[in-house]
Amino acid sequence: MLALAGLLAPCVAMADEAGDLRRLMRQGDLTVALQRAEAAVAAQPLNAELRFLQGLILIDQQSDAAAMVVFTRLAQEFPELPEPQNNLAYLHARAGRWEAARVALEAALRYAPTQRLMRENLGDVQLQLALQAWAEAGVPETTVQRKLRLGRDLSIPAAAVVDSGAATPSR
Q: Nearest 5°: CA angle at 155, between 154 and 159?
C-alpha cells in the first residue's frame, strides 16, 4: 500500500499544481501564476497541462511571442490535442495573420471535428479572409455589405423562416 501511495503522490501534486495555477489566474495574480507555472514546467517538462496553463497565463499577460512558443511546441509534441492549435489560431488572429489562424484551426478540427467553438472561430477567420480579399480586390463597401447580408439571408434555416418568420437566425 505504501508503494502505491508513493506512486500516486506525484499525480496528486500535479493536479494540485494545475488547480493552484487556475486559482491564481482567476484571482488575476498572473505574475505569481507564471512563476509557479515556470517552476512546475521545469520540474515536469512533459506535462502538457502545466505547459498549456503556462501558455494561457502568457496570453493573459499579453506576452504573445512567448505564448506562441509554448503553444507551437505543444502542438508539435501533442498534435492530437486541439487546444494548443486553437490558441495558436487566437494568437495569429490577434496579430492579423488570418491565413495562419485558418491553418491552425483546421489542424485543431482534424482532432476535434465536433467542437462548435472552434468551428465558429474558423468561420470568423474565414470571414476576415473574405473581407481582406474583397479589400485587396477593391470591392466597394456597399458591395461587401450586400454580400454579407446575402450570406446571412442564405444561412437562415428554411424551417426558421417558415415557422417563426424570423429575419435573422438566433445565436
A: 100
Question: Which residue do the cell numbers 498572473 mark?
Answer: 30
Domain boundaries defined on the chain: 16-154
Q: Does domain 16-154 have CATH number 3.90.550.10?
A: no
Please give the Cα distance from 59 to 49 (Å, whole number).
15
Place of cell 470591392: 139
- Contact between residue 71 and residue 39 where contact means Cβ atoms under 8 Å apart: no
Q: Give the separation between CA 73 and CA 70, rounded to whole angstroms.
A: 5
Tell me how far apart the alpha carbons of residues 17 and 105 are, in angstroms, rounded to a whole number: 29
Please enumerate in sequence order all residues whose Cβ is within 8 A of that of 171, keeping only pairs 6 or more positions apart, or say none: none
pLDDT in tens, 27-37: 999 999 999 99
Q: Which pTM value belongs to this model?
A: 0.77
Nearest to 75, CA basis, from 65, 67, 85 = 85
